[in-house]
Amino acid sequence: GKDRIIFATKEDHETPSSAELVADDPDDPYEEQGLILPNGDINWNCPCLGGMASGPCGEQFKSAFSCFHYSKEEIKGSDCVDQFRAMQECMQKYPDLYPQEDENDEKSTKDLEAASMEASAAKEEKGSS
Q1: pLDDT tens sequence across 6-60
Q2: Domains (range + CATH), the chain
Q3: Nearest Cα residue to 123 out of 9, 115, 23
Q4: Segments in the chain forming alpha helices (H)
Q5: b/e per residue, 111-129, with b = 16+ CB within 10 A?
């Protein structure tokens, strides 16, 4: 398949490396620019995106994020619902790569509802005695 195993001998490790390190290019337009480049474009290579722009849902992420970034609507991004829905649907297909927080939120909401009901019942008991 996609993986390849390479065995290194003791001799391989004794030979000095011939790899050349490339010095940082101060003119590299993506180096240390942050999320938005000086020309206003999105820097898809920004580490701040946490790899979201690549992977199985990278294109959906780029579409949704671009729509939001360039949105001129009064409520920014309100014209991007379809793109964000497509991104979410894609991410739901890969729960190991994109963990859903909804499950935890739903559980904590149920816990809060249960605690609230218990507190109400306790108040009623105190009031009726």
Answers
A1: 787 888 778 776 666 555 555 555 556 789 988 999 999 888 888 899 889 999 9
A2: 51-101 (1.10.287.2900)
A3: 115
A4: 10-14, 58-70, 81-92, 102-128
A5: eeeeeeeeeeeeeeeeeee
